[in-house]
Amino acid sequence: MFLTLIERYRKQHVLTPLPSVTRWLLLPFWLLLAGCEFFQPGGEVPSYVQIASFTFSAGPGQGSSSQRITDVWLYDEADFIGAFELPRTIPVLRSGASSLYLLAGIWDNGISEVRVPYPFYQPDTVLAQLVAGQVTSVTPTFTYRKATRFHFIEDFEAGNLFSFTGGDTMLMRQSQEIFEGSYSAALYLDKAARAYEGRSPAYTLPLGEPVYVELNYRCDHPFQVGLLGTKQGINTYFYKWNINPKPYWNKIYLNLGRDVNEMQADQYHILLRAVLDTAAFTQAAIYLDNIKLVSF
Question: Residue 213 half-sphere exposure, CB side, CA atoms within 13 Å?
Fold first, then answer.
């Protein structure tokens, strides 16, 4: 699957062929060692590519431009240089005119140890004049790929598509604690209103393709995101993604692709659930914004 995504990136950008399979098998090790200099002592003097910042913008009909791009996966021509946490100055064994190919990297499922190029962000190609021993600054520009399908975008500005399915409190629109715009959603828990469960409308999702939920949130209590699949009238569901408290607005990318492929349901709902831990909390607040369900 991982190779398929990278091959798709490169084919659609008419780039040079992929490196050998052996090189791709070493990707996890390159990622763990990102930032190390893979040069032999006394060898060629590297040029340096500095990536101090980047830009990202969503297009019309794509919702918020919020993002949490943490890394860049860098190619110099056909050569994979490495995956690097940003900002970073990266040594490259090349000088002169170079075509730098950059993929935006994220924490998959919010896990810092699992870093991947986000398949729905369009890679950027930057033409640079590299000079041995000198630093060349580049600022990549990322957008959503044109092939991205937005099954839903809920920013709570006009309503709330999540229907109540259980519990004793509601997910409500509010304007006191917002991420952007005029409204976000809030879920308030206490001993009299301990639980909430809700779900999105049903959507048809592709098999064998990336599927993600993007979500902005701020909370002082954990909550869960789940998936419900319906096949021939039979429901199957689970809550796999446990979202930990954050005292600030954060963005997370939840990878549903493998789960959708294993379920092979006719339709899917995104689930939200929170149950107050009364042993540790007397009350809690969970704020949500810019929930997107995306695939190809």
Answer: 28
